[in-house]
Design brief:
This protein is an alpha/beta fold. It is about 60% helix and about 5% strand. Among the domains are: about 100 residues, no CATH class; about 220 residues, P-loop containing nucleotide triphosphate hydrolases (Rossmann fold, 3-Layer(aba) Sandwich); about 60 residues; about 90 residues, no CATH class. The strands form 2 sheets. A 7-stranded mixed β-sheet has the order 1-3-4-5-2-6-7, sandwiched between helices. Helix 25 crosses helix 28. The radius of gyration is 29 Å and the shape is globular.
Length: about 725
């Protein structure tokens, strides 16, 4: 314990002394003789250490002493004699927890998932708290969302939590409900979950943090071993808090964890993810939330004045919490305070810029991350040396140019733009692709980045597993917002596609077509994305025989073509699209991807008015993939619009409900069919069922409103 203290002291920014070794080694005997419980106050009164030294030293001592049964027994007797029974029980639980934590950490290391699963113990919180420096706080508020930075700042209570939400999360966790924290990017979901984990552990529990993004895949075998060790490490009567970060970006690992879920009430689940990605995780074709998050309750983080997002999820109970202007102001003031201390800006300019940004960008869609960058951008204009305030893309450009010189084949903005462009589609760019694009020496860049990471230098991008990406999702969008007139995401993407190999293109296609914004034709903040041009570039490479995609890749390309119509819808495109699909689809072997492709193909044909082609595609799926209900529902919807085929439509839709008793889409379509056939009472029954299984469902509520005069009947 004494050696650990001395080692830790070397890394402290502020000066703390070193207690005399002989005093520390004799402290236990001193406590025994005096029948006194070890404490900071006691150490200070004996002049063994100062208060600052004692707060740190005692944590190391207690951890070491807890491994000695004699010490624990003596301390238990002291507490019992003083009728501190509850504290005595807590002490014994703490000892067991420490034993479990130690064993769990070793097991995770042996299973090669210690880089993914981090055990949050009381000692680690104390270490993080004591090692948190002003530089860590600065980085945290400059959107450094690395685990180690966030853990230090939250442990040291330098963050600015939304206390009302913290209390609600605490109540839900104590009640045993799985908790899902959702909201737009940049609203503080991860830091909220971190706060809950630190709070849980500080109260005597143990938490495990699982970060799934850009990590090695947790196989089913590793997932099963992980849960076994987790359960075995928990003392009787206790629970462990399992925090899952970025499940969508680690879907393969998340899926394997779901498959091996032990359904053990010793494990308390909490998860943080973007609202739109949650809907994708609950896709009917592969529901990643099934079974283990069935009775979850949701915390919805909202922007200032933002309405609660409509999530196509199960009937989860949700609790919306809007952001407050006061908290936003505190965060902006804290993240810019260092600029005054470093003499870069004047205090009056700092406060003025914060106020300007808050008043100018008060829209609900503006996240905290965007506000921080807007404020820095505003302060650049007023800084004594504008070059001292650099946004991420400027820092990255400076780094590359200082090491490789300014190339003539690219513009400054491209250096960060290609990283941001791929991140829009949830795809980090590989070092190999980055160097190929800019004709840089790959070995040199990898070596330079490794050197800077070893020196604890914080880069404006995340460098992990030979990939590069912005340090926060929202920053990729901000890059294009800040350079609307000079940088085109479409120009960058088309150039990147020409440099990509088969594996890179296939990964991009998978991530691209899985974006809900793409599937629904929603507009991006970064401007219009010309998906059809991307698909044409890939298809042209296939026709020239210099690109071979797997069955999955070919199916995703077809889906990309179908969904790109929402962005670029012309008659020419529709005619050529059918020709392209007819060339590609027959070459794809049977798979669930093919079932989804034919379903979307049918929807596209129906929208064009080609009912014959639409029915052909839907029936292909129904005949070959009978469990794929979306195609059955779409077939029923198609038939319900054709005069004289209402009976067929009813049979198809009733079959869907028979297979899936709580299916909402089929009920809604069937209810509308009944309305059109003057079977209003049957329609009311179905709309009531929709509202029962999904409270607040807009289709169910609007249907009941239209038919309110039939409700009593």
């Amino acid at each position: 314990a004494y050696d650990s203290y001395c080692e830790y002291r070397q890394y402290r920014k502020d000066e703390i002394g070193t207690p005399l070794e002989k005093h520390i080694l004799g402290y236990w005997e001193s406590c025994l003789k005096r029948d006194t419980v070890p404490s900071v106050t006691d150490m200070v009164s004996l002049k063994i250490a100062s208060k600052a030294e004692a707060e740190i030293m005692l944590a190391y001592l207690l951890e070491a002493w807890m491994e000695n049964p004699d010490f624990v027994e003596w301390l238990h007797d002291i507490l019992t004699q003083n009728k501190l029974d509850k504290l005595s029980e807590t002490l014994i639980s703490l000892q067991k927890n420490l034993e479990g934590v130690s064993g769990l950490a070793n097991q995770l290391k042996q299973q090669n998932i210690s880089d993914i699963a981090f055990v949050i113990s009381p000692k680690r919180i104390v270490d993080a708290k004591n090692s948190c420096t002003d530089l860590d706080v600065k980085r945290y508020y400059m959107v450094d969302n690395r685990f180690v930075t966030m853990f230090k700042v939250v442990s040291a209570e330098h963050n600015i939590p939304h206390m009302e939400i913290i209390k609600k999360v605490e109540n839900l966790v104590e009640g045993g409900h799985p908790v899902i924290i959702a909201g737009n990017g940049g609203l503080g979901k991860t830091s909220l979950m971190m706060h809950a984990a630190v709070q849980w552990t500080s109260s005597g529990g143990v938490a495990v943090w699982l970060s799934l993004s850009n990590k090695d895949i947790i196989t089913e075998q590793k997932a099963a071993a992980f849960f076994n060790h987790l359960i075995a490490s928990i003392p009787v009567g206790q629970r462990i808090l399992l925090c899952i970060e970025n499940p969508y970006e680690g879907k393969a690992s998340f899926s394997n964890l779901q498959k091996t879920w032990p359904n053990n009430d010793k494990i308390q689940l909490i998860m943080a993810e973007r609202a739109n990605r949650l809907t994708l995780l609950a896709d009917p074709d592969q529901d990643f939330l099934l079974y283990w998050f069935d009775d979850a309750q949701m915390i919805i983080l909202q922007g200032l004045g933002q309405s609660e997002p409509t999530l196509a999820l199960k009937d989860y109970i949700s609790y919306p919490f809007p952001e407050t202007q006061e908290r936003r102001k505190k965060i902006l003031e804290k993240c810019t305070l260092f600029l005054v201390g470093e003499g870069i800006v004047e205090e009056k300019d700092r406060l003025s810029s914060v106020q300007t940004v808050l008043s100018r960008y008060s829209k609900p869609t503006v996240s905290l991350v965007e506000l921080i960058y807007r404020t820095l951008f505003e302060l650049k204009k007023r800084a004594s040396k504008p070059g001292d305030i650099k946004l991420d893309w400027e820092e990255w450009e400076s780094f590359i140019e200082s090491e490789f010189g300014k190339g003539e084949i690219y513009t400054q903005k491209e250096l960060y733009g290609v990283i941001a462009a791929l991140k829009i589609f949830n795809t980090p760019i590989t070092i190999t692709l980055f160097c190929k694009y800019f004709e840089l020496k790959e070995r040199k860049l990898r070596g330079l980045l490794n050197e800077r990471l070893m020196a604890r230098h914080i880069e404006p991008v995340i460098f992990h597993n030979d990939t590069l990406q912005p340090k926060h999702d929202v920053i990729a969008e901000l890059f294009f917002l800040f350079h609307k007139e000079t940088v085109s995401i479409n120009f960058l993407m088309l150039n990147l596609l020409q440099c990509m190999d088969e594996n890179e293109i296939e990964l991009l296609l998978i991530n691209m077509v899985n974006k809900r914004e793409f599937q629904k034709g929603k507009k991006y903040n970064v401007g219009q994305i010309k998906y059809r041009d991307y698909m044409d570039e890939i298809y042209n490479r296939i026709t020239k025989n210099n690109l071979n995609l797997s069955n999955t890749g070919m199916a995703k390309l077809c889906l990309g073509y179908l969904w790109s119509r929402f962005q670029q819808n012309t008659f020419r495109n529709n005619v050529s699209l059918n020709s392209i699909l007819n060339k590609i689809a027959p070459e794809i072997d049977g798979s669930l991807d093919l079932a989804k492709l034919y379903t979307e193909w049918g929807i596209w044909a129906r929208d064009l008015g080609d009912n014959t082609l639409a029915e052909e595609k839907f029936r292909t799926v129904v005949d070959n993939y009978p469990k794929q209900l979306p195609a059955r529902t779409e077939l029923g919807k198609l038939l319900s619009k054709q005069k004289g085929r209402e009976k067929e439509a009813e049979e198809v839709l009733r079959e869907v409900i028979k297979i899936d008793s709580k299916n909402l889409h089929a009920r809604t379509v069937l209810a509308k069919l009944y309305e059109s056939c003057n079977r209003q009472i049957e329609a009311v029954i179905l709309y009531k069922e929709v509202c029962k299984y999904n409270p607040g469902n807009p289709f169910g509520e609007r249907g009941l409103e239209r038919l309110k005069k039939y409700i009593n009947a």
